[in-house]
Amino acid sequence: MKKYFYCNGKILDSRKPAVLINDIGLLRGYGVFDFIRTHQGKIFHFADHFRRFTRSARLLQLRVPLRQQATEKMIHKLLRKNKVREASIRLLLTGGPTADGLSYTDPTFAILIEDIYTFPQKLFTQGAKVITYPHQRLLPTSKNNNYIQAIRLAPERLRQKAVEVLFTDKDKILECSTSNFFIFKGDTLITPRADILPGITRQIVLRLARKKFWVEERAVKISELAQASEAFLTATNKFVMPVVMVDKKKIGKGRVGERTKWLMKSFAEYVEHYR
Ligand SMILES: Cc1ncc(COP(=O)(O)O)c(C=O)c1O
């Protein structure tokens, strides 16, 4: 994390404590966030991220204290103060201090500037592995602070050399712990529509894909993985990342497919020309 961050009207030094120990975000995990990044110094799809952040907040009956424009201005100020052009940006909102562990009045709103984490290039050239786990995120359309399963499963995921955990619910595929998930069956791109976080990367990739492929947003059965010729995941910090293995089974031939390569390239071009 970078040195300077914003919290409730002030720019503070991140090495010093800033929130009260009875913040309901800390005591109960009651809070939401959004995770954005810059490309060529520009905040990528800020309006979409801010809209999703506001929606996540509303689902927890929280109100974002700063408006979109003021938040954007503050991010630029923080980038300058931290002397960085490329960074990840985390918006964070909790209920704030609580007396009884259930109610709150003054929200905690923070903006953090973080280093960009880059995944090994090998994952993009050779494809990644994911492991499945039955789990439905709470209030899945919100980006709430509950990532307990993602964190709890991290040692097992690493042991199995997987980049992500693919959550399933009964016979359906949902999304990964921090990414959206897609499969190709021939020229048809298929991805779950409901009970997932509406990813900003997902939305852009679907728009690009419609130029060349059939697109189906619908419930996806786990059994469909066996019929998939290609698979990939999307996220702000992973772009389009090919998936060639789910648990112990190969997707298609177990190699990065041509259609996924086309989407990776299209997305990279889109990012490069983003204004
Ligand atoms: C649960 C979950 N699904 C999907 C995504 C992908 O969303 P985005 O493309 O907006 O980063 C994330 C990103 O952090 C996530 O946490």
Protein traits:
single chain; about 280 residues; alpha+beta; 10-stranded mixed sheet; 6-stranded antiparallel sheet; binds pyridoxal-5'-phosphate
Please describe what this structure looks like.
The protein is α+β, with helices and mostly antiparallel strands and 275 residues long. 27% of the residues lie in helices and 30% in strands. β3 (31-39) and β4 (42-43) form a beta hairpin. The chain starts with a strand and ends with a helix. The model has no long low-confidence stretch (mean pLDDT 98). Bound molecules: pyridoxal-5'-phosphate. Pyridoxal-5'-phosphate is lined by residues 35, 175, 178-180, 197, 199-202, 234-236.
Euclidean distance between termini CA atoms: 26 Å
Reading the helices and strands in chain order gives: EEHEEHHEEHEHHEEEEHEEEEEH
Low-confidence regions: none
Hetero ligands: pyridoxal-5'-phosphate
In short:
The protein is α+β, with helices and mostly antiparallel strands. The protein is 27% helix and 30% strand. The protein contains 8 helices and 16 strands.
